[in-house]
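$ fold --in a.seq
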Amino acid sequence: MSKISNLFKGGSKHKSKGGPSAQEAIHKLRETEEMLTKKQDYLEKRIEQELAIAKKHGTKNKRAALQALKRKKRLEQQLTQIDGTLSTIEFQREALENSHTNTEVLKNMGYAAKAMKKIHENTDLGKIDDLMADITEQQDVAQEISDAISRPFGETFDEDELLAELEELEQEDLDESMMSMGGLPSVPSSKLPSSRSNERASKRKVEEEDDMRMLASWGT
């Protein structure tokens, strides 16, 4: 087991019941992030200042320029360390926020489960089955009553037989009418001119009239 695990394990024995809440811990981490971010801004400005000093002295005052560059390097190392610390704190804060969210979700789901259990405490499944059976039975009774009310009274007849008889009567009347008229009318033996032949003849006549008018105009 690692030293870190031993540290947390040993510390858990002395953990007080009134420890910080998740919200308090998240708030503290945010404050630390803000403090380190301000320190970053300060170091970046100091790095720019030392760089300007090194450029100012250049080769004229080589010793002063080197001292400025050394200070710049130390400041850059501090800035790198703060970047790593901020990443660790941000990861810890996000993990704590997720844990807090999951805890709240589980708590609410537990409340919902208890409420559902309380609702179903006085519910008897056997009574539900009996109730559904009674509803089905009453629906069947209602359907039987509706069928009985809609059933016609008195004598009933086969509608197909009545229609067949009606067709026979109509055929008899038609036959009698044809006999009184002397039988079926004769069909002419000659073929009647079709409508298409009439159209061609009419068109030909119009063309002939146009030709005659054209010849008359030439003669004048």
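$ fold --in b.seq
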Amino acid sequence: MTRSCSAVGCSTRDTVLSRERGLSFHQFPTDTIQRSKWIRAVNRVDPRSKKIWIPGPGAILCSKHFQESDFESYGIRRKLKKGAVPSISLYKVLKYEDTRDCRAYVTAN
């Protein structure tokens, strides 16, 4: 099964062609604080519960949502720098007050 970028409105899929075009795909961090920063940045709402969306274990974001300065290069391979947070073309609809407690959701799962 092909995975898709979890950012709202992004249709990028993790395919051979996408990777040949230079896109990379990144799983949500396991570190609770860093993960909550990503969740806040993605700013997505669960359609059923109407609460903040919590990514599942296979959730990914494509490299389109990160600054070039967020990456380290190792030859032809590149990796996100520690502490990088997605910041480009992310859907903005929630207010900060709605997302400030997302760390509680992250630690509960």
